[in-house]
Each structure stands twice: as C-alpha cells, then as structure tokens.
Amino acid sequence: MTSRSSSAVAEPAPAAADRRAPGPAARPRRRRGRVPGTVWVFLLLAGGVEAIWIFWPALSTFYFSLTSWDGLDAPRFIGLENFTSMARDDVFHTALRNNAVWLAGFAVGSVILGLAMAVALDRPRRGVGVYRALIYLPMVFSLLVTGLFWRVMYQPEGPVNAILAAIGLESWQRQWLADPDIVLLAVLVAAVWRQVGYVMVLYLAGLKATDPALADAARVDGCSAWQRFWHVTMPQLRGVNTVVAAITVIDALRTFDVVWSMTGGGPYNSSELLSTYMFRQAFTNQALGYSSAIAVVIFVLTLGFIVFFLRRSFAEQK
C-alpha cells in the first residue's frame, strides 16, 4: 500500500517539470518566426539599390516637371507651366494621338495574333516545338535590332517592295518610312511582329492550365469549335487575359527603341510618340523640365490602365 500510494503521488511531478522547462521540441516554435540577420542584410541592400536607382529618380521626375531646367544650371521652379504648355503644343497633341493609335493597334494586333498562334500550336504534333521557337525568336532580339532589321526590310529596293512586285502588287509599293500617312502603321507592324511570340507563350501557359474535360463535355453536347473556344476556353483564361492586357499596355506606352531606330519620330512628327518626344525634348532641346512633365503624363496614363485592369481582376475573383 505504501509503495502504491507513493508512486501515485510521485507521478504528477514530471508533468509539472515539463510545464516549467519546455523540452527541445517546443523551443524551435518560438524561434520559427525570427528572421536571420543575413536575410535582413540582403533585403536592406536590395531595397537601398532599388531606392537609389528607381524610386528616387522617379520621385525627382515629379519635382523636375514643375521646374525649368536645362540639365546644367539649377532648376527654376515654375509650377504647372510645363503642363499648361502641353495644352498649346501641337507636337505633343500629335504624339498623344499617335500613342492612342499605337496602343490600340499594338494591343489588338499582338493579342489576337498571339492568341491565334497559341491555340493553333497548343496540341502536340510533329514539329510544333520548332514552330513555337521560330515564332518566339523575334523576342530574343533587342528592340533596337528589330528596328534596324525592319528598316532594311522597308527600303525602296528592300524585301517588302520586292515581294509586292513578285506577286503583282506593284501599285502597293511605297516609301514606307518616308510616307507620313503610313509610316506609323509600318513601324507598328515591326513592333507587333516582335511581341506576338511573347503573347503566344503567355497564352500557351494559360491553355495548359485549362480543364480539357469541359471542352470534351461541350463537344459531346454538340457545340462547335468556336462555341467551345468562346464559351468554355476563354472564361478559363481570364487571369491570363489580365496579365497580357497589363503587359501589352505597359509595353505600348513605353515603346521607344523600335520607333527611334526606324524613323526618329519622323517624317514631320508623323510617327512621334510620347516617349520619343520626351527624349527629343530632354537630349536635343535640353528642356529636361518639360520632358519630365511628359514623363509624368506617361506615368499617369500607365498607372490608370494598370489600376483599371487590377480592379477588374479583383472584381472577377470575387
């Protein structure tokens, strides 16, 4: 009796000891939320570089847009005079109108062609990888190289006019980069040619994530190929559509290299975009304050489109 009672009394002692001194298994739980110092060091280094090379210049642009500055003397604060000057600047109006045309043509052309290529090359078949690589190949080239390549293509004795002559369309031959009526369209073709492969890859990734059982069920129900694509496949690509639209808008508004290398904004400002006009004001006319104001306009336009797409994306997810 004595031994049993003593053992019964002594049993709770280990439990009390466990409560007072947590074992090794419980200790890591307290340390799990701590971030090592090395991680903070790398984060601070990356954040410092980002702040110096990205955020500070961006914030400085807003200040310089309110000044008159030639890049050499001290900036002189003039308030909103640069923005009021834009209202009277015919070249700025032309660049803004060209940007609207460029945005519409670049977005519609690259998205429709990229989606069509993705649908055509989605199913595995012989040589499909080669076709995908060839379509994506222009994306590997820089925009400057793309512009120089198409500048050669559009020469009066270049391949474009030679092909038109070979198929009996001599009346369509043009001085493509010297005609103010069609130069913007000619440069737009070069930009879309490069962008199609990138959009195709994005849509191929989205098509791989769709549910094929839904398309099979629609086929059994007698839906045509177009009905299956529009009512079954496209609703599953909403997320990809948002990403493609955002990327296309950003690329369209910041387009510079291909236009500058092909036409420099000419002839007679007929292919001038906001980006090329901003560059010309800054580095040709030495009007860095006015060019900063144009950069602010580009930023506001881009931000407006991005906010619109994000709001639509979040609304669709709800």
Automatic annotation (TrEMBL):
Q: What Pfam families does UniProt report for this protein, alphabetically? A: BPD_transp_1
One GO BP on record is: transmembrane transport
Q: Which domain of life is it from?
A: Bacteria
Task: Tell me where the signal peptide lies.
Answer: none
- Region of interest: Disordered: 1-31
Q: Where is the composition biased (Low complexity)?
A: 1-26
Does the record carry Nucleotide-binding as a key word?
A: no
For this record, the Gene Ontology CC terms, alphabetical, are:
plasma membrane
- Indicate the segments forming the ABC transmembrane type-1 domain, all copies: 96-309
Q: How does it sit in the membrane?
A: Multi-pass membrane protein
Q: Which UniProt keywords apply?
A: Cell membrane, Membrane, Transmembrane, Transmembrane helix, Transport
The subcellular location is:
Cell membrane
Question: Where does the chain cross the membrane?
Answer: 37-56, 100-121, 133-153, 182-205, 287-310
- In its keyword annotation, does this UniProt entry include Transmembrane helix? yes
Q: Write out the similarity annotation.
A: Belongs to the binding-protein-dependent transport system permease family.
| Name recorded for this polypeptide | Sugar ABC transporter permease
Species of provenance: Jiangella asiatica
